[in-house]
Amino acid sequence: MRRNTRDVKQVLNYLLLITFLITAREVSFAQTQDSYEYNSEFTWGINKNSYGGLIGGFTFKKAHRVSKTMFETYGLEVMNVKNPHESRVQAQSGNYFIYGKSNYLYALRFQYGRDLVLFTKGPQQGVEVKAVFAAGPTVGVVTPYYIQYSDSNNPYYTTNVPYTNQSYGSIQGTGGLFEGLGSSKIQMGGNLKAAMNFELGTAKSQVTGFEAGILLDAYFNKVVMMPSAENYSFYPTVFLTLFYGSRK
After folding, report:
1. pTM higher than 0.85 for the full model?
2. 23 pLDDT tier (thresholds 50, 70, 90)
3. 3-state secondary structure at position 11
């Protein structure tokens, strides 16, 4: 509980700092004469975050202009959330698995927000910078974690079964990634995001860049991914998203 409280306070402090910087910039904002206008854009991205693996997940966002410096946005994030206590270990077979893990958590984050243009770019030059705010509901899909299991009577024959505290020596590896999807349970929650968006593309009709910031994912109940370790209902995370898309 202390960890969750400390992380939430840190997230709130970051949000206050970003809000202050945006307010200061908005007061002195001036549109450059060389900039070009566009009214809508669609982007998709690959996400890396502090609660994910090598690839945390994928993002999709649709934005349309509501004023000279503001865009209304609709987003979807599909993420694989990991418990921070997870660690890959090697079985006797040579395969790897996560000992003690009982469930995956796939987060479907639906987001509605605003992108505030802080710096515009000229045609085919410069960088466009936006401040990003978004929030919305999160649908957590809690899916059983399957392992390759062999019993003592026939150690050379394995079956894929959900992890239910089997002994280390009887586990020969990880089962299929989506094998337990049909037995999934839903865990509802919400998310709040604040970030900075940097668009680096040189073509007017295309979007290329990255987005970095913080996100708080909160669920109504603790999500049990590892029964023998501490589990959480709050997941404050730092993330980086590389995105690509189109605009018109």
Report:
1. no
2. very low
3. helix
